Amino acid sequence: NKAGALAGKTLLITAGPTHEPIDPVRFIGNRSSGRMGYAIATAAAQQGATVTLISGPTALSTPHGVERINVSTALEMHDAVMQHIKGKAIFIAAAAVADYRIATPAAQKIKKSTAQTSLTLIPNPDIVAEAAALPNRPYIVGFAAETEAVIDNARAKRERKGLDMIAANQVGPGLGFDTEDNCLHILSEHAERTLGPAPKPSLANELLLLIADAVNEQH
Ligand code: C5P
């Protein structure tokens, strides 16, 4: 679609959860389905963008016309983003990246015992914050899944991570993660908007139109 709002633009998108291995058969994960990120990738391609999707483990099929790179862990997602971000016009971080990984995953399956046990967790890199600190970086959009004080937490998160725009949504039972519909509060330096509640594909379209406007104003 050469006439779309994102015609000629290159987009990098992360989506889905990450899986952090405990041993060869177990991992720590989260409830992200990847649907919001995939809806954004689909809509961006329809609006004329060249889309690279870096995806954690999901059950979704690759959107038409999108280049998909599969990763599993936060470290793999980090490396894939740093490899592909150069020259992109827009980076949208929709993945639910694990904040921590297991310090030393076991090489063999951990045996059951009756004793109490624990895992040592170490922090993962903050991919979107690191991207925002790069020179000549793209226009960067992050997500904020919050369970309380959604707007205030999102505003602080946008500033702390150095993002151009943040899309905040409330998560909890029936909301946000692993659901069809969503509601997004969009915050940027100069604008605040609420989109939805609506199906994720329609929110993705509206979000991308706001991003296209912001990117076109920059130049
Ligand atoms: O800090 P929090 O995880 O709530 O931030 C969410 C935003 O940051 C999302 O855009 C998510 O994709 C991104 N993120 C990231 N790398 C991390 C953690 C979060 O890119 N390690």
Automatic annotation (TrEMBL):
One of its GO terms (molecular function) is FMN binding. Pathway: Cofactor biosynthesis; coenzyme A biosynthesis; CoA from (R)-pantothenate: step 2/5; Cofactor biosynthesis; coenzyme A biosynthesis; CoA from (R)-pantothenate: step 3/5. Binds 1 FMN per subunit. Residues 11-219 are annotated as: Phosphopantothenate--cysteine ligase. GO terms for cellular component: phosphopantothenoylcysteine decarboxylase complex. It catalyses: (R)-4'-phosphopantothenate + L-cysteine + CTP = N-[(R)-4-phosphopantothenoyl]-L-cysteine + CMP + diphosphate + H(+); N-[(R)-4-phosphopantothenoyl]-L-cysteine + H(+) = (R)-4'-phosphopantetheine + CO2. Its EC number is 4.1.1.36, 6.3.2.5. One of its GO terms (biological process) is pantothenate catabolic process. Residues 6-212 form the DNA/pantothenate metabolism flavoprotein C-terminal domain. Its cofactor is Mg(2+); FMN. CTP binds at residues 99, 109, 125-128, 143, 157, 161. Keywords: Decarboxylase, Flavoprotein, FMN, Ligase, Lyase, Magnesium, Metal-binding, Multifunctional enzyme. In the C-terminal section; belongs to the PPC synthetase family. In the N-terminal section; belongs to the HFCD (homo-oligomeric flavin containing Cys decarboxylase) superfamily. Catalyzes two sequential steps in the biosynthesis of coenzyme A. In the first step cysteine is conjugated to 4'-phosphopantothenate to form 4-phosphopantothenoylcysteine. In the second step the latter compound is decarboxylated to form 4'-phosphopantotheine. Catalyzes two steps in the biosynthesis of coenzyme A. In the first step cysteine is conjugated to 4'-phosphopantothenate to form 4-phosphopantothenoylcysteine, in the latter compound is decarboxylated to form 4'-phosphopantotheine. This is Coenzyme A biosynthesis bifunctional protein CoaBC.
